[in-house]
Amino acid sequence: MYARAAASGKHDWPTDERTSCWASFLFYDPPQAGPFLCGIPLPSPPPPITPPPPPPLDTGLRPQSMEGAFTHAPNHLVGDSASAINEGDDISTLDAGESALDSEYGRGNLNGGPRRRRIGDDDEADVDDDEDAESLASQAQHVNGKPTGKAGEEEEVELPAHACAYCGIHNPGAVVKCLSCSKWFCSARGNTSSSHIINHLVRARHKEVQLHPSSPLGDTTLECYNCGTKNVFLLGFIPAKSDTVVVLLCRQPCAAMGQGSNKDMNWDTSKWQPLIEDRSFLPWLVSQPTDQEQMRARHLPPQVIARLEEMWKDNTSATIQDLEKSAGVDDEPAPVLLRYDDAYQYQNVFGPLVKIEADYDRKLKESQSQDNLVVRWDFGLNNKHLASFVLPKLELGDVKLAVGDEMRLRYTGELRPHWEGVGYVIKIPNNQSDEVTLELRARGGNENGHYGGKGGNNNNNNHNSSGSVPTECTHNFTADYVWKATSFDRMQHAMKTFAIDEMSVSGYIFHRLLGHEVAAAPMKVNMPRKFSVPNLPDLNGSQINAVKSVLQKPLSLIQGPPGTGKTVTSATIIYHLSKLNGGQVLVCAPSNVAVDQLCERVHRTGLKCVRVTAKSREDVDSPVSFLSLHRQVQMNDTNTELNKLNQLKAELGELSSQDEKKFKTLTRAAEREILSNADVICCTCVGAGDPRLAKFKFRTVLIDESTQSAEPECMIPLVLGCKQVVLVGDHQQLGPVIMNKKAAKAGLNQSLFERLVILGCAPIRLQVQYRMHPCLSEFPSNMFYEGSLQNGVTMQERILKHIDFPWPVQDNPMMFWSNLGTEEISASGTSYLNRTEAQNVEKIVTRFFKAGVKPESIGIITPYEGQRSYAVQCLQQAGSFKKETYKEIEVASVDAFQGREKDYIILSCVRSNDHQGIGFLSDPRRLNVALTRAKFGCVILGNPKVLSKHPLWHYLLLHFKERNTLVEGPLSNLQVSLLQFSRPKTSYRGPQRYQMTSQHASQMAPSLPGGARGAPGPNGAPAARGGAPGPAQDGSVVGYIPDDVSSVHSSALGGGAALPT
Q1: How does pLDDT run across 81-138, given as a tens digit for each residue?
Q2: How would DSSP label each residue in 560-571?
Q3: By C-alpha distance, which of 585, 365, 380, 395 is closest to 483?
Q4: H helices present in 749-905, as ranges
Q5: Number of domains the chain contains
Q6: 313-354 pLDDT tens trace
Q7: Do 808 and 916 fall into the same domain?
Q8: Is the sign of the CA dihedral 239, 242, 244, 247 positive or negative?
Q9: Are residues 900 and 972 in the same domain?
Q10: Domain of 652, in residue numbers
Q11: Residue 977 · residue 961 · CB < 8 Å
Q12: Which residues contact 677 (CB under 8 A, 6 or more apart)?
């Protein structure tokens, strides 16, 4: 497919031309021949005149004259001050009306803030722009979405079938048909910062379009000339050297690999440009409606557009009138509070939020299905079948997947009877392979004899309906998610237990969790003479202070900034708590990785540790597999009968019903014995609700990375009888993962750690960092930790003299490399990439390789999945070293790198535009994590002109510029950049926000008089649970923290751009 390259006036139109066509090729033979697009002539541009009225509504008719069909209207209806549509990566996931950014960088409305979707993948963004609404109000008046005349009378207009489903514009040259839903949308922006067609494609996750038959280009379906792909987010054009012909090619693989190049046609793939720019199709492809057409159009607020898109998911024929009929009572959930009258109020607030999140998660999982998969079969070491396949939806960002997720695989071909089996994901795509590997259960079904998802089959607990696994078949397979409510059920059960069980927590912990101010009874502790413990490093002063404080208090918060030895400190605390209290210590964290790391450190001290994992992860290898409960049961030589049954099961695959019953009984007995003899039990927060731990009571609970847990998740381990709680985390780094927008906005995204800090429970901060070169820790310390971080390593210890890399200042291994390439929407339509930055990432990596840096010592961080995928491909296609070498480099999101470190970090910022802002790069916690992963050196690639519009990035760029480490030019000849920064419209309020919030919270939390169960009794004694509330001032966290409460990593305390004034 070809098209004329005349976008934005970059190419001169010939003054005299006529059209001719040969097959599907586009030729231009001036002055006699004109350009063609698949046999449809492109028009000659008219002189700048007022465009004629729209052509007749008969979509089968061609305009009698092509003159005036292309009018270069401005890209923006009101101007180029549209706020950012993206608060991150997944443009389709935010609430309508939530603009992430004001003007170019920061709107920050009460509910707007950066969000995170899932660990390993930062997809988030918004397509809405509230700022344009006010400007539009002066242009036209509307009643119920219909235009009115001067006298205010409603004009009833019957719109043609090809009218824009949002605004009603029906100019054939300005509308596009979505082939997935057969609806039409125009290129106007209306009240959003995206054109209506792009807005729809992103929200609906549709990707194929067709032009109008009466448009200048005819009813053309946009597709790649070389491979035929129709994903418009992949498509772009390449002008020929004659500057009169273009060809449409996809970005990957055709344009990248030059597969479509032809010497006769002179295709130069280096000049490839996307068809979508500034969130709109290029005007030479889809023209802009006239100002008059836009004035007369229906202007829908972003909130209405979002609701309409949601309604279309259930009823594709729904109209705006249907939306008006369905408008009812506001169903927004009640926001979380800082303090609660009693545990029942606590449950009544959090319970609905957990249910909303559960329902959303279930809907999301069960809606995902992938057909026509090609499966590669293999056997695992445990003799279980392994099915490996590529999930295209995973590559496009439509599906989220993690190790341990349960999936159902179905065979729908004709070579054998229908078959289906269930298994666990044991491998997800990485640099080495794009395949997902599923380990099938022995009989393909789940433990309960039924599927958690739809379409289950429970014949005799055997879900292989035809018996054996169809390893002889490779095609015609379908994969579905199997949704499980386990984590949500355990949260709900924990909150119910908290409300009705007197023994679930101590009275003091009960009241502090509800936000009541009560005096803690002094704990009598014989402090150890030496605080350092066996096989762990000696503690510094701030770590010793943290240990001392924790041992004497029933509730403690420890803030561990990056590299400050938080894990060592936690392991030391666990050791002393176990020795001093004599009881078992329950150690939890929200992720398996964090639990494994802490479990390994505690094991070094000589304590008896047991790692309790979900049964779905028992076959997943980890550094502490030998400490897992199921492995310790297997290694127990004292129970000969159980060992015999284990051996028999391994040989036969399954046991008889009688032997199976006996095997389970003996296994449970062995598990209870091992757990009872343990000093420390380690599991995830959700894992603490495992039935195997139900009868255990844990006096002491430590939760690591507690700032990454939603509050109900933290409650699961706490209600097992705790009397002493230690929460470890850092509220200046990334927070909980909340998928549902309403639940996040209501405050489910706020951790218990953060709420307690707001209430005046001051955290103990670790202050000596041992990770970063001092020059790398300077900015994070000053910006996020009030300059309190000290360096436990010297400059000499963090400089590798033998590594030859062009650092601008050799003693300061850091630099910001100015890259002015523009951002592009990725193939998923919900993420971004920047080809210039990706290409320069490859150059940096190759230079590191030449200097002797090993691939495992390099980490590449990018906030966007689109850039991550493109950078991986760019490394392997353009790198001069072996592909296997580049595959060993970890390329991941900010979220995936939290809690980890690399010798060298390369950060690709991606965002580079004139009007759309910088998305969730503006999240201070995300920036904090990205800047603090490197030990020996950090390279940042980005566009300083765009980033400097945000106050936080403005300070960062000034930091680099003042140290002569802001550079530009080729990597072989870097020069100090003299670029002038954009001036941010607001100042950055970082640490001050924490101080103000803490003071405000203290004022809002007066002492509560006693007498009722909802408040402490006399002298701090607890009253009866569930009684009348005290006179405390309850209030919504949303009311206290105006900036980022709706953020998925709630930044109630973490700084960020101030609200525009």
Answers
A1: 333 333 334 444 433 333 332 333 333 332 333 333 333 344 444 434 333 333 333 3
A2: --TTS-HHHHHH
A3: 365
A4: 752-758, 774-784, 835-850, 865-878, 883-887, 894-897
A5: 4
A6: 888 998 888 887 776 545 789 999 999 999 999 999 999 999
A7: yes
A8: negative
A9: yes
A10: 626-676
A11: yes
A12: 608
